[in-house]
Task: structure prediction
Amino acid sequence: MARKQTIITDEIFNKAIEEIKNTPKSSYIYNRLRAIISAKEHSISHISNVLDITPKTLRSWVHRFQHLGVSGLSNKQKTGRIPTIKKEHEEVIEKWIKEDSQMTINAVKIKLEEEFSLSTNKSSVHNTLKKLKYSYITPRPKHYKKKEIHSAEFKKKSTPADKQCPN
Result:
């Protein structure tokens, strides 16, 4: 038999019932409130098994709801590395790309170092270009045996794409 719940008081239970009425059913906050209510009616271990979460997670939801209310049930902002290329740098990079569309990642990296004393790597410049919706297309190398005369002849003999017959 499960222990009697001491973490979820009647006050928390009633507060959760009141808040669930104003919460859209499709939100994850609704599901967390429902879990708190169900944990009072059954047990934390049983509800955590049903929801496939750890009992510690459910207890943390209860504590956050108790101290912060419904806003405590929302996801915390994830921490991460602070980006080296800021918004103001992105605007300048976009201006550079518009001025010179043939600019390479190395050229952007060098310009950032010269103008902003910003030491960054190629992958962060590449990610910034992707974020700005620019694609990085690498040129195909030219074969050392390629003869320009043969290509010109081939172009003359081949039919243009608009004149080809459909299959």
Summary: The mean pLDDT is 83.
